[in-house]
Each structure stands twice: as structure tokens, then as C-alpha cells.
Amino acid sequence: MMFQILINTSDISSFVNDQNFPVVLSSCLGGLAILCFILMYIKKSNNGQPPLPPGPKPLPLVGNLLSLDPELHIYFTNLSKSYGPILTLWLGKKVGIVISSPTLAREVLKDQDTTFANRDVPAAAREATYGGKDIAWTPYGTEWRMLRKVCVREMLSNTTLDSVYALRQKELRQTIKFLYGQAGKPVNVGEQMFLTVLNVITNMLWGGTVKGEERASLGAEFRQVVNEMTGCLGMINISDLYPGLARYDLQGVQKKTRILAGRFDKIFERMIDQRMKGVGDDGKESKDFLQFLLQLKDEGDAKTPLTMTHIKALLMDMVVGGTDTTSNTVEFALSEIMNKPQVLSKVQQELDTVVGKDRIVEESDIQKLPYLHAVMKEALRLHPALPLLIPHCPSETCIVGGYTIPKGARVFINVWAIHRDPSIWENSLEFHPERFLDGKWDYSGNDFNYFPFGSGRRICAGTAMAERMFMFSLASLVHSFDWRVPEGKNLDLEEKFGIVLKKRMPLVAIPTPRLSDASLYE
Questions:
Q1: How many domains does the chain have?
Q2: Which Pfam families does the record associate with it (predicted)?
Q3: Residue 229: what pLDDT?
Q4: Residue 6 is assigned to a structural domain of this protein
Q5: Which residue positions form the known binding site for heme?
Q6: In this structure, is residue 426 part of a structural domain?
Q7: Contact 294, 276 (CB under 8 A)
Q8: Mean pLDDT for the chain?
Q9: CA dist., res. 5 & res. 196, Å (int)
Q10: How many CA atoms lie within 13 A of 294 on its CB side?
Q11: Does a structural domain hold residue 177?
Q12: Which residues fall within 8 angstroms of residue 332, CB to CB, at 6 or more apart?
């Protein structure tokens, strides 16, 4: 989940608030007038197949675009109450299918997994990922299997992650030291966790981090760049919905994405050039992931080679797709437990029993913290990082739930709605970690009542890394500090829909040291 680039769900907020959109849309209407007689809401196909799923009636040419709500996950959930657990929306010429039940999610992600294993690649994604050559967008087949193997078996396996534990430890301790220096002052927790994860990832990739006085300012700057990138990649784009207009890039989405991606590409080029010379970012001999990928490129299978383009695309996946997701989930989790002092007290009591106050949390402590694991699972239930996963795209027309799903449709799995379904979850809107203490739920994707990392062939490649970073980060934060909101401020838990689910209001909180010795913060 957290290490795939999450770039196909719509940043509807940008679409709705874009003042230029009516002008662009008007220009499209003239050019597309000949299509006004197309029966986009056909109930039954000519060959006698079952009809499309029900849904709100579309307008000519624009379909249901003008009725979309910025909070797309909530909008889809409310529509499902009227039209059922599978429904159709017309996004211009594109058919959108929304699925909101475990039974139908199983049909798509397990029973017909191969058919739905592809993606509907938006134009901006092709710009950002070197033509869609990354693990998120490459079509299902031998090339994708090769990339998946590189990521899951080599780069993100438990064995490999164990070998780079020292990097995660170093960065978490740098974060704790920085927060100690800010004791008694308001801190933007999301920015600091974003920078921590970014430092871990870049350190694992090529040894580069943001240090010292740069930390506070560059945390916000880097996060803004990633937000702009993912915003472009998720924006409603006429080029995707009306392919005949793609070459005109009427909204400038591709151009902006190209510029943003170019900023990352310059970094990648510099790092690759150094590795080709056999040195790291610090001038020393390098033994990082980038060096490993370059060796794999030289030694790879001639039938399905790992190319330099693949390497850059995987770097983009890791840097852009692996930062926002984890940091946002930690921010949600800390907000939820601050909002429930009894939960925070239980977490700290567990940490004090296992770790004590005379040393810092180590990653080896994580497996001894079942209540903190339950907190993570509950945070991912209420606030899944990918509220609609990455939409799937059937490679052929098929039947789901008794309805026809046409080839090339964009299929949204509303995991956010499933995770909050009151028929599945008791007190479904309450943050209650105890529901996960029985050990019943995991991240395997086999139970379609709870699958925050997705399921099937396209299940998140970075689950192991995400779990380690979340647990180690949250444990360090609540073990080392007590947390409170600034005087006169409220703790807001409202969500903002996007490619990755975010807090509408960033968590700004004041840390107070709670360990026995100040030297532990060094």
C-alpha cells in the first residue's frame, strides 16, 4: 500500500475549485458535439449481456462530472446507499464503477484477479513514471512480475529490511533529538514524520538525508513538492476522459507534472552518476539500494531486463509513493490516541512495561507491543491511506455482481466505506483498538472486511516496510514524549480526500519529554 504511487484516484477538490475548468469544458463541448447522441447510460448491451450497474443519470458529454463532491470517498459511500454496493458513474467518456461491499470486492480482487490486474494509466502518470514503467502502472505480465520480484523479494523483503535497520534507527533518533529541542513548543507532527520517512527512504536508496538546521524548513518544502506531484497525478484531467483531446493538454497537467518530475529526475541522475563511478553521496564506496539495482541491471535476465528507465521509475515510486502514506497514517494515529487519553495511557503503559523509561525504543521491541499493533490496525481501519485503493481496470468485459463491467472501465474499491460499515464493525465510527486484540485481522488481503493494503496480485509491495516504519515511529513518539495541543486549539480529526487520505487540519502538538535521562534524547 504505502510504497506504491497512489496516483489514479481523483483529486476532486482541485477539479471542483479550478476556476478555469468551466472555460476548458466549454471548449470541449464544441469539439465533442458530434458525440451528444451517444447513449452513455445504456442499460443493456446489444449482445444481450447484463446491464451496467445502476447509478445517477448522466448528462450528455460530461456524464456525472459536474455532480462529483470533493470528498470523493464520502460521496461514493452516500451514493451506494441509494444505488447499492455496485454502481456506475460516467466520467466524461470513461465508465467508472464503484464497489462498496466485501463480497463484490472479493469478486474483483480474488475471483477475477487476473482480469482486473491492470491499471487505467492517466496521462500525468506516464509523465511522472517514465512512461508508466514502475511497479504501480506497468501492465500485468512478465515485465511487471520482474519489477514485483525486485521490490518484494530483494529491496523490501524482511531480510533486506533487517539489514538496514541501523538507518531507520539513526533517523528516528534524529527525529526524537529534534523534537526534544522543540520541547514546550508547537510542532507540525505530519511534517516531521514526512521528513523522517523521506530520510529513511533516501538513506536506504542512496545515503542522502536532510540534517540539522535544514530539517524544519526542508520538511515543509519537500512535503509541498510531493503534494504538488501527487496532486497533478490525481487531478481530473480532460486528457484522460476524452482521449481525442489528450495531445492538447488543455489543463496543463502534463506540463506541470513533467516539470515536477524533472526535479526528481535531476536528483536521480546525479545519484546514478555517482554510483556508476562507485561512490556514495558522501564520497565513500556505496552499498545501498541504488547500487544493488544497478548491479541487478547489469546481471539481469536478458529476456526481461531491468533497464535504467525501470530503475528511475522505482526510485520515483519509493520517494513519492512511500513518504506521504506512512507519515499521514502516523499523524492520524497520534491524533486519535491524543483524542482518547485512555488509549494513550494504555499505549504508554505497555511501552513502559516492555521498554521502561531508562532506554530508547528499539525496533526489536515492536513484536512485544500487541496494543500498539491494535492501534495501528484501528488507525488503518478508520483512515486507510488509500481510501479507494488504486483503481483497477479490467482487461476484458466481465460480469461482477450480476452486472456487466466493460473492458477499460475505472473500478474503484471503496475500502473506506467497507471499513466503516456498521453491519461489519460494531460502533464502526469509534476509535477502539481493542477490537483488534484477538489477532483475527491481518494485512494479507484475504479477508475483505479489512484490507487496508489492498489484495490480490496488486497488493501493496511495501507492507513490511510500512508496518515497521509506523510501529517504530509511533512507539518512539509516545514513549519519549507526552503530547498536548496548544492552548485554545482543538484537536481536529476531519479528513481531506486526495490520492492519499490526509488530515484536513495538520496535527500541531506540543511535546513534553517523559524519559528518565536527558542523555537518552541525544
A1: 1
A2: p450
A3: 85
A4: no
A5: 460
A6: yes
A7: yes
A8: 87
A9: 18
A10: 19
A11: yes
A12: 379, 382, 383, 493, 501, 503
Which amino acid, 501? L
Give, in order, the Cα–Cα distances in Å from 440 to each of 208, 435, 446, 452, 455: 39, 9, 12, 15, 17
Please report, for the domain that includes residue 151, its CATH number. 1.10.630.10
Give the pLDDT score at 453.
Answer: 96
Distance CA 188, CA 224 (A): 14
What is the distance between the alpha carbons of residues 243 and 32, in angstroms, rounded to a whole number? 11
User: What pLDDT score does 204 carry?
Assistant: 84
Annotated binding site: 460
Q: Please determine, for residue 158, whether its predicted confidence score (pLDDT) is greater than 80.
A: yes
Is residue 235 pLDDT above 80, yes or no? no
Measured CA to CA, the distance from residue 54 to residue 45 in angstroms comes to 14
Position 303 scores a pLDDT of 85
In a domain? residue 4: no
Cβ distance 466 to 326 under 8 Å? yes
Q: Please check the confidence at residue 494 and state whether its pLDDT lies above 80.
A: yes
Q: How far apart are CA 373 and CA 305, in angstroms?
A: 39
**Phi and psi angles of residue 398, each rounded to the nearest 5 degrees, phi first:** -145, 180
CA distance 223 to 229: 10
- The structure's pTM equals 0.88
pLDDT of residue 522: 86
Whether residue 300 is predicted with pLDDT greater than 70 in this model: the reply is: yes
